[in-house]
Structures are given as structure tokens and as C-alpha cells.
Amino acid sequence: MSFISEKFRRLTPYTPGEQPKDRKYIKLNTNESPYPPSEHALTYAAEAAKELMLYSDPQCTKLREALADRYGVDKDCIICGNGSDDILNFAFSAFCDDKTPAVFADITYGFYPVFSEYNRTPYRIIPLKDDFTVCPKEYYNADGTVFIANPNAPTGIALKRCEIEEIIKNNPDNVVVIDEAYVDFGAESCVPLVKKYKNLLVTMTFSKSRSLAGARLGFGIADKSIINDLNTVRYSINPYNVNLMTSAAGIGALEDQKYTDENCKKIIKTRRKTSDSLKKLGFFITDSCANFLFAKHESFGGEYIYEQLRERGVLVRHFNAPRIADFNRITVGSEEQMAALIKALEDITGRKI
User: Fold this and answer.
1) Which of 153, 152, 185, 165 is nearest to 291 (CA)?
2) Is this model's pTM higher than 0.85 or not?
């Protein structure tokens, strides 16, 4: 017997990457950073823990000031949340309804259709091209709220800022949301366009490049009017959505930008090296600007590769969607982790590099 409300009975929830505990795995399935958080972030979070008897600042004032300084915008143009998923959900709630559907790609972040269904709003899907790239012109005059992950997930492919600007210009009466969870690994950010367009919302996260996936911290940058709309939703749901320790850790991470930049450079270097090795083993790789690779083998199916790696203690992410069933998404880990991946794949494919 189920007591769930009728409005949620047909809801298909998002499926997070698996977190098995049966053995120790090399985790390359959830796009976490292989590097620990900045010492600044850890120190600030530990200090904030002493005041956990108090509520956190619902306005995240100090964190927004730090973000404003980092991105060159007014602090009133920033909203913070429990991961960028929080901000995205606010956007679906605030800017989509029966008259304004959500518009997004068929192969993209899996939360988009879930957020649509959860908020009981219609959505329209625009298929990626055969090479998994977004065709910008197909989003012109979309007659809905546009959501584009850039770089896209799980493909890792990025649009240029000028291409996204054309999408924004050609949707003057609707909000365009650019989800930049992976932008720090080689793509162009659209934050500079926020001052130019009042219909642009850019969402970002501390989970990837700043090694704070477990802290759950994200933010959005947009014109003040959009931020006010999002705060209307946030204050109606949970004004204390960012806890004291997470907010402090975020400030610490922002103060240690050099550490973030160095980690991104290491991940990009490892991504390039791993991509070259995978190609030698017979894999096709999309042109990734993210901290993961999207790989398909010329002889073995995606599920087979996934299962064989799992048996060898290496986790990657496999998707069952028809267009990408032969692919696996592989997080770029440390040099040692990727060496173990390649060794396992040599065994599976019967090839040597």
C-alpha cells in the first residue's frame, strides 16, 4: 500500500551514481574530484562547526560577497543553494508552467526531466545531432525556458560562448539557464553575459573543480530580477538551505583559487593522457571539456565494459538510453587511478599499449 500523493505516483526519480560498500572501488562514476578540498576550506568549516547551535545566514551574505568578488558581479546578482541542483529546481519551479514548458536536449543531465515532472510542468526535448553536439539554431524562439548544460553531461561537449549568446538573444521573452557544473575544465563561462542580458541564469557548483561534492554547495548568477524570483521560491521552501559549515568551506575554497586552478590543470592533463590511451585500446571518445570522458569501444558493448570493470574494482557510469547504451562515462581521477583503469581495460580488450 502506498500513501504517496497522486501527483507523484508516476514520478520517475533521478538515479544517482552507485555508491557500493561491498568492497573498495576505484570510483570513476560520479565525477568527483580525486583531490581533497583546500586546507582553507577545511579550516573555515571546522571553525564554523563551533557555532552549529545557531541557524545559518539565510542570505549567505559573506559567501555571496566572496562570489561577487570572484566573478565580478554585484552580490545581489547571486543566489546560493544546496548544490546547483537546488538552484536548478528553483528555476524549474519559478520559470516553467503550463504555458511555459522547459526545453532541453534528449541526452543531457538526467535531473532535467525529473525536475519538470516534480514541478508538474510540460517539457520539450530537442535531440542532439548525430555527433552529440547541440544545434544552437534549434533553440531559437524556443517558446519556453531553455536549459543547457555546458559542457554537456554525459558527453562533455561544450558550446562556445558566442553560440550560447545567440540562443539568449533569440529568446528575449524567456529565461535561458546555462548549467556550468563542469565549466572550469576547459569551456567558456557565460557569466560575462549576465550584465548584458536580463534573461540569462548561469548555475555553477563547488562539487567538481573545488572538491566539495560532499558539502553540497552551488550558486546561480543572473540579473537581480531573476535572483529575486528564485528567492521567492527559496524562501517559500527552505531559507536555510546552505548550512554554516558548507558556507564557510565555500568561502575558504574561493580564497584559495590557486589551488583550484592547479587541480583543474592536473585533471585536464590527465584527461588528455587518458583519452590518448583509450583511443589506442579501440575506444571512440567525444571531445570532452569536462572532468570526465565519454567512451565507446569499437568491439565491446558499453554494458559489458562496465560490468567487466566493476568486477575488477573500477566503477564507471553506464546509461541504458538507446542512443548512448554503448558508451560509458569515465570520471578523470588521479594519475594512479587512471593507470589502474587502463590496465583493467587492457585485460578486458586483450590489447596492450
Assistant:
1) 185
2) yes
Over 80: is that where the pLDDT of 250 sits? yes
Q: Which three cell numbers stand for residue 185?
A: 575544465
Where is the domain boundary, 256, 273, 302? 256
pLDDT at residue 23 tops 80: no
Cell matching residue 307: 560490468
Q: 1 lies in a domain?
A: no
Same domain for 113 and 231?
Answer: yes
Please give the Cα distance from 88 to 110 (Å, whole number).
12
Cβ atoms of residues 59 and 76 within 8 Å:
no
Residue 62 vs residues 50, 74, 141, 243, 251: alpha-carbon distances, Å: 17, 13, 38, 13, 8
Do 138 and 16 fall into the same domain? no
Whether 232 and 144 map to the same domain: the answer is: yes
**Type of residue found at 169:** K
DSSP letter string, 297-349: ESSS-HHHHHHHHHHTTEE-EE---GGGTTEEEEE---HHHHHHHHHHHHHHH
What is the 3-class SS of 265-291, one letter each residue? HHHHHHHHHHHHHHHHCCEEECCCCCC
Range of the domain at 325: 6-35+258-349
Q: What is the pLDDT of residue 8?
A: 87
Q: 35: closest CA among 266, 205, 246?
A: 266
With bands split at pLDDT 50, 70 and 90, how would you rate the model's confidence at 83?
Answer: very high
What 8-state DSSP symbol labels residue 213? Answer: G
